[in-house]
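Running low. Any example?
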Amino acid sequence: MTFSFGKRKIQKVQYTYMLPIPVDWVRNMKLNKGDSLKIEMTSDNRLLISPIPQARQDSEGTGAPNTV
């Protein structure tokens, strides 16, 4: 399945650059607010964006170090 979303403009918010993700893609991937995405750069400098399965997100937690 191929989607074409046209152009997207990069936005700068404080010290971060952001790129809006199309709502249709998010819905098709069955993602919700707070879900995680994996972003990889290929050898030809393209970006691949993939959803991280919910079970894996749950096991990874927030990425914060464990404290005792």
Summary: The radius of gyration is 15 Å. The beta strands are 11-13, 16-18, 37-41, 47-51. Residues 24 and 42 are 24 Å apart (CA to CA). Residues 54-60 form the longest helix (7 residues).
